[in-house]
TrEMBL record:
PROSITE patterns the UniProt entry points to: 4FE4S_FER_1, 4FE4S_FER_2
Keyword presence, rRNA-binding: no
Residues spanning the membrane: 36-55, 86-110, 158-175, 181-203, 340-361
Annotated keywords: 4Fe-4S, Electron transport, Iron, Iron-sulfur, Membrane, Metal-binding, Transmembrane, Transmembrane helix, Transport
InterPro entries (alphabetical): 4Fe4S_Fe-S-bd, 4Fe4S_Fe_S_CS, Cyt_c_oxidase_cbb3_FixG, Electron_Trans/Redox, FixG_C, Helical_ferredxn, Ig-like_fold
Pfam families named among the record's database cross-references: Fer4_18 (PF13746), Fer4_5 (PF12801), FixG_C (PF11614)
Segments forming domain 4Fe-4S ferredoxin-type: 253-284
Source species: Undibacterium rivi
PANTHER family referenced in this protein's UniProt entry, alphabetically: FERREDOXIN-TYPE PROTEIN NAPH
Listed name of the protein: Cytochrome c oxidase accessory protein CcoG
């Protein structure tokens, strides 16, 4: 068989980049209803974060997580490691709240309360005050290095660093009393772990909010990746009305755009210029969208200037847009079975947690039996030794009594009243003696009852085992 050579078909070379080159986003200043609400949330979250650390309660810091003493103070309540269940409940409440808000109105948390969003907005505000608005910043960055450019950049980064370090200082102030921390910083006697977290959290804020900005939302935040699992066609999302807006194009205000075959979109690009992540909402819903609503404010202002109806870009649902539903019908579908179930479960958990906190007993008791063999006296009485740890979670010193229940004739040989300081724990031995022939050989159930002598309604019953040797 004759060999026929095969001539390869030439193919165009295609160069593929594994990583997209970052294009710096220069968000434009925008005023409006959604922009105002964003600043309300910035003020609220930062007042809460920076201010709470300085509040006092009963001559101590109101909110303090004392890891060394393993005590967590939250206003009038003291939590111990044994109260870990409350942290679990808090995490469940946070997760369900996120699911509920996302199912109702998309990424509201991202747009208004996420720390990355909040600090990016603050850093952008500083940048605008120092370097100017969008066009001025673009011109400054593309220009050559001059004394003016260097001084503006230096001032901006200096202010960023001051704010970042203050943020790191406040963060550590929730774990070390903030007033003591301030003295340590001023006298350069800060401990090693405080120094690490102070600098780590500060420079993390500086890097994320000052340099990375929208990159954190687009590439690092996992929420952006799984949000679609919580969206459906009745979720409120920031949407561009394609049917009304297309075909887009510039025009004179006096021109009848419908007669000219144009849509309402004048292709001004304001919606792109104000977007913190730099996307074009007219291309449809994208995972980078943080639902801040700034494009709605910008578009509405353009519509007002042109004399057009507002709402070319608006919060709406896919069903409302395609089915041309009015607001009443849209909201009826928003509060559907899915969101009602989320709301019901969330409300029930919050109610149970609130009731649990209201009836929270400010006393905790642990009982551990000594590992040694029980002692038998000359009269045949059996003696077991226990270690009781009593934790007083109240803000005042308390005195407690200890009793034995469940065994006839059982007595406590040593002192049964114990004084415990405020928000402290005390361990002490207890010798329990039981008459002969009262209990069977082997393990027997007994109960220790610890009562507050000044508040008889505060008591804890703890089970234990009494061993009778064979």
């Amino acid at each position: 068989m004759k060999h026929i050579p095969i001539t390869p078909v030439p193919m165009d070379e295609v160069e593929l980049a594994l990583f997209e080159e970052r294009k710096k986003v220069y968000p434009r200043t925008q005023k409006g209803w959604f922009a105002s609400w964003r600043w309300v949330m910035v003020a609220f979250t930062q007042l809460l974060f920076y201010g709470t650390a300085w509040l006092n309660w009963n001559d101590r810091q109101a909110v303090l997580f004392d890891l060394v003493a393993r005590k967590f103070y939250i206003f009038g309540i003291v939590f111990w490691p044994q109260d870990f269940i409350y942290l679990a409940v808090l995490l469940v409440i946070s997760a369900l709240s996120l699911f509920l808000f996302t199912a109702v109105a998309g990424r509201l948390f991202c747009g208004y309360a996420c720390p990355q969003t909040v600090y990016t907005e603050i850093f952008l505000w500083i940048e605008r005050k120092v370097e100017g608005d969008r066009n001025a910043r673009i011109k400054l960055d593309t220009g050559s290095l001059t004394a003016r450019k260097f001084s503006l950049k230096f001032v901006k980064h200096f202010l960023w660093l001051i704010l970042s370090l203050w943020t790191g200082f406040t963060f550590v102030g929730y774990f070390t009393p903030i007033r003591e921390l301030a003295i340590s910083v001023g006298s350069f006697t800060l401990g090693p772990w405080e120094t690490f977290w102070f600098l780590f959290y500060g420079f993390a804020t500086y890097g994320n909010a000052g340099w990375m900005r929208e990159q954190v939302c687009k590439y690092m935040c996992p929420y952006a990746r799984f949000q679609s699992a919580m969206f459906d066609k009745d979720t409120l999302i920031v949407t561009y009305d394609t049917e009304r807006g297309e075909p887009r194009g510039s025009r004179n205000k006096k021109v009848d755009f419908k007669a000219a075959g144009l849509g309402s979109c004048v292709d001004c690009g304001i919606c792109v210029q104000v977007c913190p992540t730099g996307i074009d909402i007219r291309n449809g819903l994208q995972y980078e969208c943080i639902a801040c609503g700034l494009c709605i404010d910008g578009c509405d202002q353009v519509m007002d200037k042109m004399g057009y109806e507002r709402g070319l870009i608006r919060y709406t649902t896919e069903h409302a847009l395609t089915g041309k539903l009015d607001n009443k019908a849209m909201w009826k579908r928003v509060f559907r079975l899915r969101t009602l179930v989320y709301s019901g479960i969330l409300g029930l958990i919050i109610l149970v947690a609130a009731v649990s906190l209201v009836y929270h007993v400010p006393l905790k008791v642990d009982v551990i039996r000594d590992r040694g063999m029980p002692k038998i006296t000359e009269n045949g009485e059996i003696e077991n030794v226990y270690r009781l740890q009593v934790m007083n979670t109240q803000e005042s010193a308390r005195r407690y009594s200890v009793e034995i229940q469940g065994v006839q004739g059982a007595t406590i040989l040593n002192n049964v009243d114990i004084d415990v300081k405020s928000a402290a724990a005390k361990a002490f031995p207890v010798r329990v003696r039981v008459p002969a022939n009262v209990l069977q050989t082997g393990s027997n159930r007994i109960r220790f009852v610890v009562k507050d002598l000044d508040a008889p309604d505060v008591s804890v019953t703890e089970k234990a085992v009494f061993i009778v040797p064979r």
